[in-house]
Amino acid sequence: MKLHLGCYQKKIHGYVNVDIRDDVNPDVVDDVFELKSFSANSIDVIYVCHVLEHASFEESIKGIKRWFELLKDGGVLRIAVPDLEAVFEHYIFYKDLKILNSFIYGSQKHDYDFHRCGWDEKTITELLKNIGFESVSRYDWRETEHFYIDDYSQCYLPEISYKSRRLSDDIKGKLMSLNIEATK
Questions:
Q1: Gap between the Cα atoms of 108 and 71, Å rounded
Q2: In angstroms, rounded to a whole number, what is the distance separating the alpha carbons of residues 63 and 61?
Q3: Which has the closest alpha carbon to 46: 22, 10, 80?
Q4: pLDDT in tens, 90-128
Q5: What single DSSP character describes residue 152?
Q6: How far is it, in rounded angstroms, from Cα 74 to Cα 184?
Q7: CB 14 within 8 Å of CB 77
Q8: Which residue has the higher pLDDT, 98 or 158?
Q9: Domain architecture of the chain: domains with CATH
């Protein structure tokens, strides 16, 4: 079984799409940090794209521990979050905070769309390893089975259309998403 947590309106075929909001019609309505609908050691892959930053650090730790519990031995956790290092580099170079607001604060379109914490590679890697994950490293979204889902794991600045990203390996721009994969 594979879970896509915080799916919103981007459903992945072959995954159980989970969201706390029933108005986005997920397969399962559940709090993605608690996942009361699932049993320990029952999941092969968990994909969480730009969700972790919507929780506090304490809630994030609790959620990642729950995901670790749900994964089978050898299971994969794939997380994408705004890459604060890339965000800060972009700001220092371009001095344009307006384009970065949603990376820092969330889009703020509904109650669940506010950012409460931020991540860089060192911080999230240390947390994942402390919880017990192994083989923590960045992943390339183009090499996943859900590469066709145009989500924030593929967010570059300046913005590049999905079509141009798929047609060229020569992507111009900076990836603004920190895409991390860890194995239990």
A1: 31
A2: 5
A3: 80
A4: 999 999 899 899 999 999 998 889 999 999 999 999 999
A5: G
A6: 5
A7: no
A8: 98
A9: 2-183 (3.40.50.150)
